[in-house]
Amino acid sequence: MLSRTITNLGGTFMIADFLEFDFLRHTFFTGLLIGLIAPLLGAFIVVRRLSLIADALSHVTLAGIAFGLFLEKKVLGAIITPFYSGLTFSVIGSIFIEKLRTVYKDYQELAIPIILSGGVGLSVIFISLANGFNTDIFNYLFGSASAISQKDFFTIIVISIIILFSIGLFYKELMTLSFDEEHATVSGIHSKRIHLLFIVLTALVIAASIRIVGVLLVSALMTLPVAASMRLARGFKQMIILSIIFGEAAVITGLISGYYLSMPPGGTIVVVSIIILLLSISVKRFNFKRGELEK
């Protein structure tokens, strides 16, 4: 009875805080958007075997954030915020990846470690110039429930609309390119343009997700829900739907648990995603064993 009362009080306090504080509403609604667009694009990333591209661009984004913090403290004050400098670096990094893929046509996977290494190197330099690790860097690394301003929230809404519109418009081309690039080229699809669009969209998702999940954990939200859905789905569209459901479940549960435990939401979201993945693997094995017994 007492535990039930405490739970009810906890829920009441959270609802009251949600109604009172704008940043909590911004965080929650941003989480819902990220839980939608990250697994949605992540499905194409995983199918194309480009999972590491999210890690590469996240480290480039970290370099941009550190650069923004450096400018904020040393040069231009608050004219350029770290969020927008990270967004800019992420998009530029995605374009460089695509250019390097054309340079190393027979070894296109080299583009990812090259950009990742460059992102790490620049991050170390700019973090040092910005007086090292501090609370701001920590929030960008692992996410924060209080870091999303109204301006950032509206920017993330715009990014989400762009991603949803682009995937809806070029879904057929993206799917064909993901499963058979040669067939896509023969079919008359401009593979280079579509791939560039795909890379830039990935950069936008990563930049939009850093406030909630954090730079170092954003790739997990793009891949773990997809990995879980692959164990259960019977087709690509079903995989996308399940990925979004798992992503939303991880974000909502992670945000709520992070709020009550006073922890960065990035860690709790990733842990919930891993639990969902383990459950999906267990369900798949259980169904397989049951099918074997029925035979």
Brief synopsis:
By secondary structure, this protein is mostly helical. The protein is built from 13 helices and no strands. The longest helix has 30 residues, at 265-294.
Strand % is under 5%
CATH topology of the domain at 24-214: ABC transporter involved in vitamin B12 uptake, BtuC
On the 0-100 scale, what is the average pLDDT?
82
Count every helix, treating DSSP H or I runs of 4 or more residues as helices. Answer: 13
How would you sum up the global shape?
globular
Helix content: over 70%
Supply the helix-strand structural class. mainly alpha
Low-pLDDT regions: 1-11
Query: How do the SSEs run, as a string of H and E?
Result: HHHHHHHHHHHHH
User: How is the biggest beta sheet arranged?
Assistant: none
Report the radius of gyration as a whole number of Å. 20 Å
**What's the architecture of the domain at 24-214, going by CATH?**
Orthogonal Bundle
CATH class of the domain at 24-214: Mainly Alpha
Number of strands: 0
What is the first-to-last residue Cα distance?
A: 48 Å
The CATH homologous superfamily of the domain at 24-214 is termed: ABC transporter involved in vitamin B12 uptake, BtuC
